[in-house]
Design brief:
The chain has 117 residues and is of the alpha+beta class.
């Protein structure tokens, strides 16, 4: 491509890995938590959503965190997951550029009235 830019593959559904017949159902996640013991890693994934409520002052929104999925794995499997993710991130950054990170790096629950437009 011109100016050294990389060709971006067309968007579409994510194909199943070669050893799978089809993709299992997916969840959109934005939060992760990890706990571990000497024999087990537990990775929990979730997302945030807004809960709306009517009050005498008007509509209010509260952002809540929902945990959707937990994965329990051996340390060996956790290491395989780490290496798989590292390879995927490298491939992604080679295709699309550096992945930006969240400068806040934390989740905060906030509630209050919804601003009127």
């Amino acid at each position: 491509m011109a100016n050294g830019s990389k060709e971006i593959p067309p968007l579409g559904p994510v194909p199943a890995p070669p050893n799978m017949q089809s993709m299992p159902p997916t969840q959109n996640i934005s939060h992760l938590a990890l706990s571990l013991t000497a024999t087990e890693f537990v990775l929990v994934a979730g997302h945030s959503r807004a809960l709306m409520a009517a009050t005498p002052e008007g509509m209010t929104a509260q952002i809540v965190q929902e945990w959707l999925l937990g994965l329990s794995m051996s340390p060996t499997t956790a290491l395989m997951l780490l290496r798989t993710l590292e390879a995927g991130v490298t491939q992604y950054e080679d295709l699309f550029g550096k992945i930006p990170t969240d400068p806040k790096g934390s989740f905060k629950v906030e509630s209050g009235p919804v601003p009127k437009s």
